[in-house]
Amino acid sequence: MKTSRTSPIHTLARRTFANRASAVYLALVGGAMAVAALEPLFANNPDASLIWVWPALFTFPAFGFVAWLGEAGWGGDAPTWFFTGGIVLAALLQSLALGTTWDALRGRRERRGRLTTAS
Description:
Elements: H1 8-17, H2 20-42, H3 53-58, H4 62-74, H5 80-118
Helix pairs in contact: 1-5, 2-5, 4-5
């Protein structure tokens, strides 16, 4: 009898990237980051840098910790790479949480379906 055990890395990747909830969320954050990165090419007003608020809001509350670290470490003058990397890291962390929730809800639905068909 062969068991189908998956490695922890495979499970982590599946929960982070390979489900509907995570894919939609990562597409939303990636799209917001692409728009924010391209904004300076098309707009030259002084408020163009405020477009980066959207990717940060899409990754909140995990990005709140990154913002706090930036404030504590650099006193409000954190480099751009820190905040961009923080948005990516926060999005991946929240995508993992969404994927885990998705798997838990799907597993509960499948167990409930097996119980009703067994009766």
